[in-house]
Amino acid sequence: MKMLPENYFKTANKLKDSGQLYTAMVAYQKVLTIKPDYVEAYKKLAEVYLLQGNFDAAIACCKEVLKVQPQLTSVYLILGNIFQEKNQFEQAINAYFQALKLQPNLAEVYVYLGSIYNRRGQLDLAIFNYERALEINPNIPSVRLILGNIFIERREFERAIFCYQIFQQLEPENPQVYFKLGGVFTLQNDFEAALDYYQKSLSIKPNYQEAFAELYRLLKPEITEQELGILFTEWQDFALANNHNIERYIDSVIEVEEGRSGATPHRRQMQGVISGDDNSRK
């Protein structure tokens, strides 16, 4: 019984989705030997070639599609992504602009344009395109995160906080957003808020080493990287035994620090933050 190209195509898609790129490539090629004008197979094959780093083959597939359907927006997106991977930014921008001519309100295109300008250090253009994407679709967490990072770089802290807080609303269980908020408030010397956000990040993801390190530096600024490594291992054991109770862990840290002589003003301040003693912040 002769197998239909659609069946090969479905099989190829499953192989691609499972990461079996070489076998998927062979299957897509089989589809095209049976049905040379199978546009979707060319598009998927181009994506496989892109993942494999075979950029010339990916471009050739896109050109074959455009011979059949020159008004296909998704192909210009793939072409733009290929050129961006090759660091050929002008060609990528041209491809994305072609996509916008066909679909002016496609948020995805503005995200890709924003990424190019961000990589090139053209932050005003990056912000413009990312914000244009959000005007079309406000619910893109990754763009909120990237914009927040750009605003941090520009030291526009309030705008960064706004972006991260919307990201938080979209993905309330994402530990990264709390880590980012902790970083902003640390830069603003709002240690109480920073500590709260680092705690929240660790309560969601107890093995978040960067969040643990930043939290501990608030408690003990002079700590070394070697000490942090040892303490992080201890925290992992504590978290496992205490249901990831980060607040209880911090209380135990404070008790240890209080037992040592000569606590620094910063440490006394942070102890006050933990205990809620407003006088310690004056």
What this model shows, in words?
The chain has 282 residues and is mostly helical. Among the domains are: 1-70, Tetratricopeptide repeat domain (Serine Threonine Protein Phosphatase 5, Tetratricopeptide repeat); 173-282, Serine Threonine Protein Phosphatase 5, Tetratricopeptide repeat, CATH 1.25.40. It is 76% helix and 0% strand. The chain contains 16 helices and no strands. Helix 6 (89-102) runs antiparallel to helix 7 (107-119) and helix 12 runs antiparallel to helix 13 (209-219). The longest helix is centred in the last third of the chain and has 17 residues, at 225-241. It is elongated and about 75 Å long.
Summarize the structure.
Among the domains are: 1-70, Alpha Horseshoe (Serine Threonine Protein Phosphatase 5, Tetratricopeptide repeat), CATH 1.25.40; 173-282, Serine Threonine Protein Phosphatase 5, Tetratricopeptide repeat (Alpha Horseshoe), CATH 1.25.40.
The overall pLDDT, averaged over residues, is: 86
Number of strand elements: 0
User: How many strands, which pairing sense, and closed or not: the largest β-sheet?
Assistant: none
Tell me the Rg in angstroms. Answer: 25 Å
How many helices does DSSP assign?
16
At CATH level 2, the architecture of the domain at 173-282 is Alpha Horseshoe
Topology:
Blueprint: H1 5-17, H2 21-34, H3 39-52, H4 55-68, H5 73-85, H6 89-102, H7 107-119, H8 123-136, H9 141-153, H10 157-170, H11 175-187, H12 191-204, H13 209-219, H14 225-241, H15 246-258, H16 265-275
Helix pairs in contact: 1-2, 2-3, 3-4, 3-5, 4-5, 5-6, 6-7, 7-8, 8-9, 9-10, 10-11, 11-12, 11-13, 12-13
